[in-house]
Design brief:
heterodimer; A: about 120 residues; alpha+beta; four-stranded antiparallel β-sheet; 5 strands; about 30% helix; about 20% strand; elongated; B: alpha/beta; Rossmann fold; Dihydrodipicolinate Reductase, domain 2; 2 domains; five-stranded antiparallel β-sheet; globular; threonine biosynthesis (chain B); NADP (chain B)
Chain lengths: ~120, ~300
């Protein structure tokens, strides 16, 4: 209804056709799932199997509940290895919101002046 | 002095009936506070003799010909609430070509055909508004446009599908299975008979595509978002997560990071410490983080929150 009121005012004020989203960008788009982040795992796999996976994959897993585990930050490769090891269908991995570990930004290379002795 | 605006409407289903009721109930207030009288001149429907949830005001013309509404020279604003894709797009195009301002809540259409409809509206010097296409009762698009005009949005994260949130909330609270929670949502009128778009994450994806345009100026595609739905989530997972400090939510996210936009629509575990985790049932919530304001949370009912129950 608010849109109708705004449109009506713009019609009466003869300002219609001017209220468009001015925000335009051309950004590279990436999948958030391809960034390292922590997960909640739901699995009935034995704890020892999970610990072995974690040790091999160099990450940590903490049991939170009967079959619920919290992982440290995992890369997509580590997550893929974990789910492959446990077997597809044997584990549900839910990303923990806002746990993302962002890749370090590429810093511009530092250039310093080199003083040359010219004889 | 009160000035009259002639309004035409396309569709008279659940949403259209709601619009007629609001136009009737709020007429006096709109006249008093805005100085505008909105006169519903004509409504186009598919079947003239279908049963209606509302009685049209005296003087409102009911027609089964869309063209008579969108080409009527007296009608200034067209409200599209048909909810289809091809027919709705053709009707909106015709309305814009005839100089009407158009209001629509058709998120599927705006997400997929928005750029060309907006371009047409600009060429025709008409308005095309679609605030209700995202998060129903939360005026988030206008907020992003106006209130963040001088700010830089860094992240939007939203629970923007009431059906999915109702199902996940019920599974968490009662231990109901996915099928049971979906059936309850359908009985309560919060889920369609075919809930595919809601539970597959597609509806949320369409809304994120629109949100991204307003938050970052960046169009997104379905293939970039690759939505994941909630159909594989179990009640046991929801309840164990809740007992351990997280709520399972179908979350739409877009985040600007070092000049790149990262996006996702998927079920995630939201920490109980975050206000978003407390958005339950058919409520919607959109968290915005920006450079100047920091973190803000906008909550309210989703589009389907006041939907009447489906007759069984």
């Amino acid at each position: 209804m608010n849109d109708v009121i705004v449109a009506a005012h713009r019609w009466l004020q003869q300002t219609r056709g001017t209220a468009f989203n001015p925000n335009q960008a051309h950004l590279p788009v990436r999948a958030l799932s391809q960034v390292a982040q922590a997960y909640l795992l739901f699995t009935t796999s034995p704890v020892l199997t999970l610990q072995k996976c974690a040790n091999e994959g160099d990450f940590s897993i903490n049991r939170r509940n009967a079959s619920c585990y919290e992982t440290s930050v995992l890369t997509p490769t580590q997550l893929a290895h974990l789910t492959a090891t446990l077997g597809r269908g044997q584990v549900t991995a839910l990303p923990i919101a806002f746990s993302t570990q962002w890749p370090a930004s590429v810093k511009p290379s530092v250039r310093s002046n080199v003083k040359l002795a010219i004889s | 002095m009160t000035q009259t605006i002639e309004v035409g409407m396309l569709g008279l289903g659940t949403v259209g009936s709601g619009v007629v009721m609001r136009l009737t109930q709020a007429a006096t207030k709109i006249e008093q506070t805005q100085g505008i009288r909105l006169h519903l001149a004509a409504v186009a429907v598919h079947h003239l003799n279908a049963p209606r949830a509302v009685t049209l005001p005296i003087g409102t013309r009911l027609t089964d010909k869309i063209a008579t509404v969108v080409t009527d020279p007296h009608i200034q604003i067209v409200i599209e609430v048909m909810g289809t894709l091809a027919t709705a797009e053709a009707a909106i195009v015709a309305a814009l070509q005839h100089g009407k301002s158009v209001i629509t809540a058709n998120k599927d259409l705006i997400a997929t055909a928005g750029p060309r409809l907006i371009a047409l509206a600009q060429r025709q010097q008409c308005d095309l508004f679609y605030e209700a296409s995202v998060a129903g009762g939360i005026p988030i698009l206008r907020t992003l446009t106006d209130s963040y005009a001088t700010d830089q949005v860094q992240q939007v994260a939203g629970i923007i599908n009431g059906t999915a949130n109702y199902i996940l909330s019920a599974m968490t609270a009662t231990g109901a299975t996915y099928a049971e929670a979906l059936a309850a949502a359908q009985r309560a009128g919060y889920a369609e008979a075919d809930p595919t778009n809601d539970v597959s994450g597609l509806d949320t994806t369409y809304k994120l595509m629109i949100l991204s345009q307003f938050a970052f100026g960046q169009g997104l595609t379905i293939s970039q978002i690759q939505p994941q739905g909630i159909t594989m989530i179990t009640a046991a997972a929801c309840q164990q997560a809740a007992q351990s400090g997280w709520q399972v939510k179908l979350l739409a996210q877009a985040q600007l990071q070092v000049g790149q936009l990262y996006c996702r629509v998927a079920p995630v575990a939201v920490p109980n410490t975050l206000a978003l985790s407390q958005i339950n049932g058919v409520q919607n919530g959109v968290a915005v983080r920006s450079q100047a304001i920091g973190q803000s949370l906008y909550t309210g009912p989703g589009a389907g929150a006041r939907r009447p129950p489906i007759a069984s």
